[in-house]
Specification:
It holds the Pfam family GlnE. The chain is mostly helical and 979 residues long. It has 44 helices and ten strands.
Length: 979
């Protein structure tokens, strides 16, 4: 076998990907090739290192190779940089003299002092004209960065040491940049004292290789200077400093200086006095701004003035947890982390993605904000230092603290290696094989670099995500339960602080619930201790954490001994998360779960409403297994209770449209009445000793029930109709039908664990004064002689849905010409409809109710929209068959297609009807009882907003949107209904 073939295999083993190019490059190195080959094989990218070395030799001269052959330390440092950083290789070619920086034998011994870095940068720009100084600053910055990168790659520095040195380097650069800015401003620069206060990673001594440097500026007029002139001078200094650092020149750029963390952000003044900062932070600042101030550190300019700003804000930082809105701001910060991830990068995001750097930083900072108010031991600014203090103080378990430290250090190191390649600001792990191989080798995974890198990264991602969810919540359990192992241990007082920060209004009661759930050594208690850290997080994200935890305790006490309950929650994360959201949002759903605990199982499946046919079949089968009529109807109502939970859960979780909710509730009522009608008929026949019924019966749905638009708190408006069998005694048939109707209403009104279903027959002819049940002929005679326009309007929603099919069809044929007159209603009838509506508006709105907030009878509410659609139906359905429907939205669409309503007006009415219906349902779901007015209670409003999909803290926006919808709807109603 040829020596060339053998050489190629060796080169591939050493990590060269293009062996032909490598052979050619090594030949060009001459005698230096053999002693340098093994060192090249230890670099991140041997091919890139070799190419960079050849380029640098051409620029630096032959003594480069002689030095490298004789000095292995220098060779390893230089080749490591060339193999890991294309950007620094380019810098060395432009400034070949800088390779000698790596001959310093003390390079890896100690970190240079911050003052030494600052002095070197200031010396580089001293006495130079502006343009030369700007370029000199870039060159000197790269020289110092080159030294750091060489130490980082070859001397195995800790990631915190690298980040701290990068932060000191940035501080020195800001000082040198400020010196250049003073030259640009001229004599006016002496009018102001300006301090540059670093925030974020630079302030926390944990900067990346490439990152924006976040700053805040504070100034003070110089002695005797005019304040406005001082402000102008300080603004000019700050502006020029930012340009000096970020402008692109022949020597490139350094990094952007970002001042957007200042009070009022981009909209606020660039510089402020100390008093102006104090006024803003005391009156207007949000919680996230105090979180940002955790890392504030004076770094350039007048350091004493900067220290005054930091000392002034420190007490505010550590009392932020006591501020109104802390919980909402905290939740908003969590959301922003996820919202800023581009979809294409979500799985490769090292910083913002799940299990990324921000998860660690956010958790650590949140623990500091909660407990740092009373515990000064945990106030370090750097993440790893703060994590160590939290662990030592007992707020994080030792094993968890160690695992989180290792994961964060790995992620930051990987981030550094990614950025070092081209000195670009990126946090996305590349997917191409070459880049992954280079990254893996740069982290000393020389054997299978790609596979080990991916495996290690995914392991740490999982660990971070697990610990992020765990470490804020699990220590709460140690305050109330004896948990073996090395866990964080909070005092009861610290646990109460943490629960308060999570949004629990009554932390002491919450601790009692946790104690009840986790006490003891039983399997149930053990599983609860596993579940609760995650459940607490979900409760905290919901509108009412207290209700969520209390409901979970009651449910667990009811089902705790049931084998499937806890194992389902433990093993099926979707069930547990859905349960937590329901319990902490909806009193209605919580009540149903307590009455129907088996419904927990249902949360893992399809939550779409079942069909009326399937429900009727199940209810009839359940009822027929019981001889006792009350037991039979309890079985029917049990199925109804379960299905109410299914619909409510689907609605709360955003899986069901509002129209589907109304239709689902209406079909459920159909099935309930159908099955109960059979039971009531059985009772009536038994009482009368009859083998067969003397009459056929049907139930006609009316109102919102007839329109397939029931809400959770709606009654079932109905009319009863019967038709005696041939040869039956009319009186006996009437008596039987009356008994069946009364028995049906009695059975459904019996006290029970399910929400009652009130059957309301007041819309029948003559109202409460008329007979409960009429024959078909009696209805025909009444409508022919006595019917008035409001009854015709009520019949627009009549839908014969239950009982004898033939009778139902004949009833609907009977009322068809009455509700849809061929020529429409008369002008007098139109006037009468409007008169009745005006009376409803003036008399039926509850005393004290706000007409702008009442969902049913208020301005632009449901009644306004539905009466408008019904008037169109009464006027035009005789000529427009599509208008002959009991459903509001279908009728509105038909009116639009017929040109009776404009596209815009139809859209407004449709959107408003859907919106108001959703809000009305949400109020019932949250409160557990019907409500027709937008609630005034802040927590209830917040929960309603959450059900509607608004983020925490947006209840005012929800109310404003609601008022906008109803205002627009009222404008359309005024044009169409009132003309």
């Amino acid at each position: 076998m040829s020596r060339t073939a053998t050489g190629k295999r060796e080169l591939l083993r050493l990590g060269f990907q293009d062996s032909d190019a490598a052979l050619d490059g090594l030949a060009r190195l001459g005698d230096a090739a053999e002693p340098l080959l093994a060192l090249l094989g230890r670099t991140a990218d041997p091919g890139a290192a070799l190419e960079g070395l050849l380029r640098l030799r051409d620029a630096a001269g032959p003594d480069l190779l002689e030095t490298l052959v004789d000095d292995e330390g220098t060779a390893m440092r230089l080749l490591s940089v060339l193999g890991a950083s294309e950007a620094l290789a380019d810098h060395l070619v432009r400034h070949p003299e800088h390779w000698r920086e790596l001959t310093d034998p003390s390079l890896g011994d100690t970190r240079p002092a911050a003052w030494a870095l600052r002095d070197a940068l200031l010396a580089a720009v001293a006495g130079k004209p502006d343009a030369e100084a700007v370029d000199a600053l870039r060159v000197e910055y790269r020289r110092l960065l080159l030294r750091l990168a060489a130490r980082d790659l070859t001397h195995h520095l800790g990631v915190d040491d690298v980040a701290a040195e990068l932060s000191d380097l940035a501080a020195g650069t800001l000082e040198a940049g400020l010196e250049i800015a003073r030259g640009r401003v001229g004599a006016d620069a002496d009018l102001a004292r300006l301090a540059v206060v670093a925030m974020g990673k630079c302030g926390g001594h944990e900067l990346n290789y490439v990152s924006d440097v976040d700053v805040v500026y504070v100034y003070a007029p110089a002695d005797g200077a005019d304040e406005q002139a001082a402000q102008r001078a300080a603004t000019q200094l700050a502006t020029h400093l930012m340009r000096v650092c970020s402008d692109h020149t022949g020597e490139g750029t350094i990094w952007p200086v970002d001042a957007n963390l200042r009070p009022e952000g981009k909209a606020g003044p660039l510089v402020r006095t100390l008093a102006s900062h104090q006024s803003y932070y005391e009156r207007w600042a949000s919680t996230w701004e105090f979180q940002a101030l955790l890392k504030a550190r004076p770094v350039a300019g007048d350091l004493e003035l900067g220290r005054q700003l930091v000392e002034m804000t420190r007490p505010m930082v550590w009392s932020a947890v006591e501020r109104d809105g802390f919980v909402e701001d905290t939740q908003a910060m969590r959301r922003r982390v996820l919202e800023h991830i581009p979809a294409r990068d979500a799985d490769r995001q090292l910083k913002l993605g799940a299990g990324g750097l921000r998860d660690v930083e956010f958790a650590v900072q949140l623990l500091q904000l909660v407990h740092g108010r009373v515990d000064e031991r945990i106030r370090a600014t750097a993440t790893l230092s703060a994590l160590a203090e939290l662990t030592e103080a007992g707020y994080v378990g030792r094993d968890d603290g160690l695992a989180l430290h290792e994961a964060y250090a790995f992620l930051r190191t990987l981030e550094h290696r990614i950025q070092l390649h081209q000195l670009r600001r990126t946090h996305v792990v590349p997917q191409d094989e070459a880049s992954l191989r280079r990254l893996g080798r740069s982290m000393n995974y020389l054997k299978d670099p790609t596979g080990i890198l991916e495996k290690t990264w995914q392991h740490h991602r999982r660990e971070v995500r697990r610990l992020h969810e765990k470490l804020f919540y699990r220590p709460l359990l140690t305050a109330v339960a004896r948990i073996s192992g090395d866990e964080a241990r909070l005092s009861p007082e610290a646990a109460e602080q943490r629960l308060g920060a999570l949004g629990f209004v009554d932390p002491r009661s919450a601790l009692r619930h946790l104690e009840a759930l986790t006490a003891g050594v039983t399997r149930t208690a053990q599983i609860q201790r596993t579940l609760l850290p995650v459940m607490l997080g979900w409760f905290a994200d919901a509108p009412d954490p207290d209700a969520g935890l209390f409901g979970f305790r009651r449910l667990s006490e009811s089902l705790g001994a049931t084998p499937w309950y806890l194992s389902t929650l433990r093993d099926e994360g979707q069930v547990a998360e859905r349960l937590a959201r329901l319990l902490a949002t909806s009193r209605y759903a919580t009540d149903l779960l307590e009455r129907e605990p088996q419904g927990v199982r249902m949360l893992g499946g399809d939550l779409q409403p079942l069909s009326a046919e399937a429900l009727t079949e199940e209810m009839l089968a359940s009822a027929r297994r019981h001889d006792d009529p009350e037991a039979a109807v309890r079985a029917i109502r049990g199925v109804r209770r379960r299905e109410l939970l299914r619909i409510a859960a689907g609605d709360l979780l955003g899986l069901i449209d509002v129209a589907d909710v109304g239709a689902g509730l209406s079909r459920l009522t159909d099935a309930t009445l159908e099955a109960t009608l059979e039971v009531a008929g059985r009772v009536a026949r038994t009482q009368r000793g009859l083998d067969v019924a003397p009459t056929r019966m049907a139930i006609v749905a009316m109102g919102r029930y007839g329109g397939f638009e029931l809400s959770y708190g709606s009654d079932a408006d109905v009319m009863f109709v019967h038709d005696p069998e041939p040869g039956a005694d009319p009186q006996e048939a009437a008596s039987y039908a009356q008994a069946v109707a009364n028995e049906l209403r009695r059975l459904l009104a019996l006290p029970g664990p399910d929400p009652s279903l009130e059957v309301d027959a007041d819309l029948r002819p003559e109202g409460k004064q008329g007979p409960l049940v009429r024959t078909l002929d009696s209805y025909a005679a009444y409508y022919a002689k006595w019917s008035v326009v409001w009854e015709a309007q009520a019949l627009l929603r009549a839908d014969a849905v239950v009982g004898d099919l033939d009778l139902r069809q004949r009833f609907e044929a009977l009322i068809e010409p009455l509700r849809y007159p061929p020529d429409g209603i008369t002008p007098d009838d139109v006037v009468e409809v409007r008169r009745i509506k005006a009376r409803v508006d003036s008399e039926r709105l509850p005393r004290g109710a706000d007409p702008h907030l009442h969902l049913k009878l208020g301005r632009g509410g449901l009644a306004d929209i539905e009466w408008t659609v019904q008037l169109l139906q009464m006027r035009y359905a005789g000529q427009v068959p599509a208008l002959r429907t009991s459903r509001t939205l279908d009728a509105l669409e038909a009116a639009r297609e017929a040109g009776l309503v404009s596209e815009d007006d139809a859209s407004v009415l449709q959107q408003s009807w859907r919106r108001v219906s959703r809000v009305r349902n949400a109020v019932t779901l949250v409160r557990g009882k019907p409500g027709d007015e937008l609630p005034h209670d802040i927590r209830v409003r917040a929960a309603v907003a959450a059900v509607l999909g608004y983020p925490p803290g947006s209840s005012d926006a929800m109310v404003n949107d609601q008022l906008r919808y109803t205002r627009l709807a009222r404008g359309v109603v005024d044009r169409i209904f009132w003309e």
